[in-house]
Amino acid sequence: MASNTSNSERDRTESNALVDNFGRFHSYLRISLTERCNLRCKYCMPAEGVQLTQKERLLTTAEVLKLASLFVAEGVRKIRLTGGEPTVRKDLTEIVAQLKATNPLLESVGITTNGLMLTRQLVGLQRAGLDAINVSLDTLRAARYEQITRRKGWDRVMAGIDLAIQLGYRPKVNCVLMKGFNEDEICDFVELTRDRNVDVRFIEYMPFTGNRWDTEQMVSYRATLDTIRARYPAFEPLPNGPNDTSKAYRVPGYRGQMGFITSMTEHFCGSCNRLRITADGNLKVCLFGNTEVSLRDALRSPGCSEDDLRCLISAAVKRKKKQHAGAPALSTTITTSTIQTSSPYRTTPLLQQSSRHYASLSHVDVHTGRATMVDVDDKVSTKRVAKAQATVYVGPTIAALIQNNELKKGDVLSISQMAAIVAAKKTADLIPLCHNIPLSSIKVETNLNSSTNEVHILAKVKCDGKTGVEMEALTAVSIAALTVYDMCKAVSHEILIKNIMLVEKTGGKSEFYRKQFGHETSTLETRTMEEREAPEPIKVRPLRTDPIVTQEQFVPMYI
């Protein structure tokens, strides 16, 4: 009898309701429990905020549980609860308990969280039956975490990850890599797996409409893999399941493993088995798709039966496209962006001067006298590096305000650092005859010297290309210096920007090293040529093995 029941359930699993026109069976359901979040991540939420849905238009707890049971009956075996931030739901533990109690065929219930509330809630969630945890964490540096999330809490997130390990979970740590922000931490995240049984997964940045980033922020899977293998030559692939979105790797001997979610460069649409229900009850069959079906409205319609819901779901699944719905080809997007950035400057005429011998000018067409970019087609592509510096004298009053972070416009050092990174990427927009170069790394240091009342700025820019990046480095420090001036001018105009200069240029036909350099303490420059070849040691917070306190005074913002 038990065997017959098992076969009956297996037949139901293979029903057509969750099979699309390309033969993909959907056994994984992600349910958003809320639109709200207790962080304000810059790449996730626009600066102007988002319009939240009215409460009465969101799914109730009972509706969430009813839809979950319906999908499980049709063959879903894995449910992940997401947001917003699911831990801001006061009834999260109850929802997990009910899902496990009422759906015996359900194999896994997990959550995706920012980790802020894990030290308070995870023990209760485990008792309720929670099977898996994904933690979104884009940096292993506390100051950078506060910068991107606009909130404090990095220490609490790390404690939550360690608590999950102590409780027997293998948490997945999801990191969205972004150029100019955290690609310098790739190997730091690898090192996190040395002593921790975690699965760190690098996610290619996806340029959704409405955030303030673009495709130029994306760090590709292949580029990330090259960076890791340069430091860990034995980095090896692991077997993957048929529906895995992550390509698994590990460093031999490390407790944890790594993964790559290649949503943009190597999509995994052919094996996609995921469906999504939004907080307001809309069924999305593809993350990139604009088409949604309101299950909430159907649930609340008088006379709507479970069979009607199944037909509605089946029709939506059958409309699922073969691959990313509505997502432009990545190569097309980048190419178009490059053309739009550079083309306006190619035909801008110079002032016509009859006495000028155009043949002597490298950036002017010999026949027409019009501006033209240097042709670098015949040059060899090499690794190019440039460093530049600038100094801003601010005086004792402003220096004290910067040191104590008391200026009305905010944190001068952090904001000027971000301005430098943005400026380096926009050099071709600012200086007409510069090539638009894809940069592989931008590192900027801004330091206050209290004894001289000066802000020291140092930028290091890298690329793999046919022309150098000294203009990008010089633009970075120049804009950083101007940002310091702009943020401090309300206090005094007795501010002096000085010593903007190229410090080092390598990788091209002609290399340059400035013999004397003012930043004796700079971590970007005070290394011998031998030291440059050796990788810097990576420091990662040690795994906590002591009992983690779960009664801290932090109170979640149920906003």
UniProtKB/TrEMBL annotation:
Catalytic activity from the UniProt record: (8S)-3',8-cyclo-7,8-dihydroguanosine 5'-triphosphate = cyclic pyranopterin phosphate + diphosphate; GTP + AH2 + S-adenosyl-L-methionine = (8S)-3',8-cyclo-7,8-dihydroguanosine 5'-triphosphate + 5'-deoxyadenosine + L-methionine + A + H(+)
Annotated ranges, domain Radical SAM core: 21-243
Keyword presence, Nucleus: no
Cofactors required: [4Fe-4S] cluster
InterPro entries per record: Aldolase_TIM, Elp3/MiaA/NifB-like_rSAM, MoaA, MoaA-like, MoaA_NifB_PqqE_Fe-S-bd_CS, MoaA_twitch, MoaC, MoaC_bact/euk
Protein EC: 4.1.99.22, 4.6.1.17
SMART domains (UniProt xref): Elp3
One Gene Ontology term from the biological process aspect of the record: Mo-molybdopterin cofactor biosynthetic process
Keywords, ordered alphabetically: 4Fe-4S, GTP-binding, Iron, Iron-sulfur, Lyase, Metal-binding, Molybdenum cofactor biosynthesis, Nucleotide-binding, S-adenosyl-L-methionine
UniProt-listed Pfam families: MoaC, Mob_synth_C, Radical_SAM
Pathway: Cofactor biosynthesis; molybdopterin biosynthesis
Domain of life assignment: Eukaryota
Gene Ontology terms, MF aspect: 4 iron, 4 sulfur cluster binding; cyclic pyranopterin monophosphate synthase activity; GTP 3',8'-cyclase activity; GTP binding; metal ion binding
Function: Isoform MOCS1A and isoform MOCS1B probably form a complex that catalyzes the conversion of 5'-GTP to cyclic pyranopterin monophosphate (cPMP). MOCS1A catalyzes the cyclization of GTP to (8S)-3',8-cyclo-7,8-dihydroguanosine 5'-triphosphate and MOCS1B catalyzes the subsequent conversion of (8S)-3',8-cyclo-7,8-dihydroguanosine 5'-triphosphate to cPMP.
NCBIfam families attached to this UniProt entry: moaA, moaC, PRK09364.1
Family, as annotated: In the N-terminal section; belongs to the radical SAM superfamily. MoaA family. In the C-terminal section; belongs to the MoaC family.
Subunit text: Isoform MOCS1A and isoform MOCS1B probably form a heterooligomer.
Entry protein name: Molybdenum cofactor biosynthesis protein 1
